[in-house]
Design a protein that fits this description.
Strand content: 5-15%
Mean pLDDT: 88
Distance between the termini: 14 Å
Number of strands: 8
Largest sheet: 8 strands, mixed
Strand order of the largest sheet: 3-2-4-1-5-6-7-8
Low-confidence stretches: none
Radius of gyration: 21 Å
Helix content: 40-55%
Order of helices and strands: HHHHHEHEHEHEHEHEHEEH
Length: 309
């Protein structure tokens, strides 16, 4: 339980810039207005958009809030704050089935552009799943980035999990083929594959990911394939653009948001989930191996608004 609490305080500290950006604006709005009118909603809309929630999500939140205010016959602005917090939580809830893959034999494909912390995330996720009693293996299938193989080897060592790696420039699909054979032979629960992130070369990337998926489906049909996209929280709306481009290439089942510490754009966690209709499943708030945890909308919004648990 200690580490969970530690993560919550880290999350709270990490979200401080977003809090300055979003919550302070909201607080002054609620204290500035005694009654709820059109100007109040207009100003709230502006605050949410400025905090990187994006137009669509903001509109949904405002509509939902208006309905709740009407339904509960609320007149005073300050009573509206809890409703707003509840509405944001509802926008972000992940759903019960989001982590089903963790209890099956599964292959996790980690995708995302270079520089978002993809390889590091593979290592951290391996550590997290291993701590949960899973037998984990990682595959270094990002063979185009010289440092990726070394980096993943280092993380595998830290997480104390097996790694299958090819040589630099090797065919990524061949590495995945070897990794799948090894995972079956060693009766591994979860195989996590690091993949290349060259979005500017979309056609090649698409072919490569298709080839990798075909190999897994053919060689390991009993495995569940989970495709997680790693996005950098500091890039705000740009992260949504990346998620869109990757979703044209493959079927994304979840999002990992990294670098949420120290960004003013933490609101992106709320936006991306609604906008893409893909759940945020893990969030990263630091460099250490245990700085990646399952996403919990309740905790995230509590940390953002400094709600005492």
């Amino acid at each position: 339980m200690g580490e969970k609490k530690g993560f919550f305080s880290k999350l709270k500290a990490g979200l401080s810039k977003t809090r300055d950006n979003l919550v302070k604006g909201i607080d002054s709005l609620f204290s500035g207005y005694s009654e709820i009118d059109d100007d109040f909603y207009e100003e709230l809309e502006e605050i949410l958009i400025m905090a990187d929630l994006g137009i669509n999500v903001t509109t949904e939140i405002i509509e939902d809030l208006k309905a709740k205010v009407k339904e509960n016959k609320i007149k005073e602005a300050k009573l509206c704050k809890q409703l707003l917090i509840d509405t944001i939580k509802e926008q972000m809830s992940v759903g019960e089935t989001a982590y089903d893959f963790e209890n099956k034999k599964c292959v996790i494909l980690m995708i995302g552009v270079n520089g978002v912390g993809k390889t590091t995330t593979v290592g951290k996720l391996a550590g997290l799943l291993k701590d949960n009693g899973k037998k984990v293996m990682v595959a270094a299938a990002d063979t185009f980035r010289v440092a990726a193989i070394e980096q993943l080897t280092e993380w595998a060592h830290r997480a104390n999990v097996d790694i299958v790696a090819g040589t630099e420039g090797a065919d990524p699909a061949a590495v995945v083929y070897d990794a799948v054979s090894a995972a079956k032979a060693r009766d591994v629960d979860v195989l996590i594959c690091d993949t290349a992130g060259r979005l500017h070369n979309k056609k090649n990337l698409m072919e490569e990911l298709k080839k990798i998926s075909r190999i897994i489906e053919k060689e390991y049909p009993e495995a569940y394939i989970e495709t997680l996209i790693v996005l950098d929280g500091t890039t705000g709306q740009n992260a949504i653009v990346q998620a869109r481009q990757f979703s044209e290439v493959c079927n994304i089942s979840g999002i990992v948001l990294t670098k949420l510490d120290g960004t003013a754009k933490g609101g992106i966690a709320i936006a991306i989930q609604s906008e893409m209709d893909i759940p945020v499943k893990y969030i990263g708030i630091g460099e250490k191996i245990d700085d990646l945890q399952k996403f919990n909308s309740e905790e995230f919004v509590n940390a953002l608004f400094e709600v005492q648990k």
